[in-house]
Write a structure and sequence with these properties.
The chain has 9 helices and 28 strands. It is an alpha+beta fold and 501 residues long. It is globular, with a radius of gyration of 21 Å. The two termini are 35 Å apart.
Length: 501
């Protein structure tokens, strides 16, 4: 069925969620959006994208806006790239003012599509009508572009860079099409060894500086198929406690997945380091082959190649990340955001944590593979049953095969929802994902993050390399009892010991 076009169901998968997808080189696609919200998107694009709109059209139930120029293409002009970030800021800000908060950004296709943003309708009492959104884009190999940025925060960012990047700043803030640009010495977005550690420490220090000034990191996303752009919004009263925690130097740290087998903790307090070490020792059956100080970070070397794998072997990696998220949350560390800041294909996502109240939690992973496979890792039986119903009701092409393995539950769909090369199966995949978000919310599960933790890249003779697998998504719930007693972990309805075998 891949390559065919078919209409989305007439009813949206959810009234509380919708999706915006960015596509190479110039398009914004809106899925499952009601008419009033679609009008907000239309006005935000008209107001926020100064190069103009080329066309707008409806195709098989989704709405596409085609922008002038090529703002989402690698190698586009600086003016186009900055204009793309500016319209993204406007979309986030205008939708937030109307009660739509961005929930997460995820990369769900192997080619052509960039990030998909999932929005959640918020309670009217929680809407911050005065919020503003700004962006720090990681540009090229050595630049920051600061878009819609408050002038009083420019010096804060520059100071954070000076404190953490020993090679220093080559060019201070200069105007670039209404935004500001900073160029550093060296190449922080492709650095290795000491530079790789410093680049991650620099990003953490910028997040802390922004939090101390009342700006929350609301999303990290790729809208140009390179490194991520970080979007911050001014904090509401409800955000202030989180800002205070994150702005404190001893209350946040980075967990970074590097090379094929390294896990690095940067700025992590000793108690967080021991939590991670214990999870690795008890749950990674290939063992630890190294534990050392690495340019001021703590580096663990894992047996095997957990961050560069595919197929069933990659399930072990996702279970390990699931258990790390779960144990850190139990011990008082919440995940703030995942970031992809490196142009090196064998470096994966960066996880930013902040101190929080310890709360008993359960996490599971929705792992998306190849062109059409979903795997439910560490998911309780009731979650698997709910997901099967959601897929049956919201994915028009249906299920091709279904299998239960010792460790996970697998569903293979008809069509190619994780490939946008031909047809519009990828749109049906987004529609289904919105149904999954709705079903999980109703059952007390929250989307924790979306991340790349193990994808091998396919080398394309023409065009860019692309990942064999796409992002995985993690869900968490507070005070959920584990599906198996005595601390063991249930995986997709099958019993197993709490190890990544």
């Amino acid at each position: 069925m891949g390559g065919n076009y078919s209409y989305l169901p007439s009813e949206p998968a959810s009234n509380n969620f919708f999706c915006i997808t960015f596509r190479v080189p110039d398009s914004i696609k809106v899925i499952d959006c009601d008419p009033p919200t679609l009008e907000i998107v239309r006005k935000a694009i008209a107001r926020g994208y100064r190069l103009g709109l080329r066309q707008e059209y409806d195709k098989y139930g989704s709405r596409t806006f085609v922008l002038a120029g090529n703002p989402f293409k690698v190698g586009c002009s600086k003016e186009e790239a900055i204009a793309g970030k500016q319209v993204a800021c406007t979309l986030l800000q205008d939708l937030a003012h109307k009660g739509w908060q961005v929930l997460n950004s995820s990369e769900l296709c192997r080619n052509k599509d960039l990030s998909s943003w999932f929005f959640e309708r918020t309670n009217e009492a929680c809407v911050n009508y005065d919020s503003t959104v700004c962006c720090i884009a990681l540009s090229g190999f050595d630049k920051f572009q600061l878009v819609n940025f408050p002038k009083q925060l420019l010096a804060k960012v520059a100071d954070a860079v000076r404190r953490t990047w020993t090679l220093g700043i080559q060019e201070e803030m200069k105007d670039a099409y209404g935004s500001m640009e900073m160029k550093m010495n060296g190449n922080p977005w492709s650095a290795s060894e000491r530079g790789a550690v410093e680049a991650r420490r620099m990003i953490l220090e910028i997040i802390r500086a922004m939090a101390s000034e009342g700006y929350v990191l609301c999303m990290s996303t790729s809208i140009k198929d390179t490194t991520d752009s970080l979007f911050f919004r001014s904090a509401s009263a409800a955000d202030q406690p989180s800002c205070s925690e994150l702005g404190s130097p001893d209350a946040s740290f980075v967990l970074s997945l590097n090379r094929h087998d390294r896990l690095r903790l940067i700025e992590a307090p000793s108690e967080a380091q021991e939590v991670v070490r214990n999870v690795l020792l008890h749950h990674w059956t290939s063992g630890l082959t190294g534990d050392r100080d690495y340019h001021g970070s703590r580096e663990f070397k894992l047996g095997g190649s957990p961050w560069w794998t595919e197929g069933a072997e990659s399930v072990r990696t996702r279970l390990l990340i699931t258990l790390l998220l779960q144990e850190l949350r139990d011990k008082g560390w919440r995940l703030v955001q995942t970031i992809e800041l490196c142009r090196r294909l064998n470096d994966k996502s960066v996880f930013v944590f902040a101190r929080a109240q310890p709360e008993s939690s359960l996490h599971w992973c929705l792992s998306l593979h190849s062109k059409s496979v979903l795997r439910f890792v560490n998911a309780p039986v009731e979650v698997v049953d709910a997901l099967r119903l959601v897929i049956a009701g919201n994915y028009i092409h249906g299920i091709k095969t279904e299998r239960v393995f010792a460790g996970y539950h697998q569903v293979r769909l008809r069509g190619r929802p994780w490939s946008s090369h031909n047809g519009n199966d990828h749109v049906h995949g987004r529609h289904m994902m919105l149904g999954i978000l709705e079903a999980m919310q109703q059952r007390g599960w929250s989307l924790v993050c979306s991340a790349d933790v193990s994808a091998i890249y396919h080398h394309a003779d023409s065009g860019q390399d692309y990942p064999v697998d796409v992002h995985s998504l993690w869900f968490g719930a507070i005070n959920k009892k584990p599906p198996i007693a005595d601390g063991a972990v249930g995986v997709g309805g099958a019993s197993s010991a709490p190890s990544c075998e």
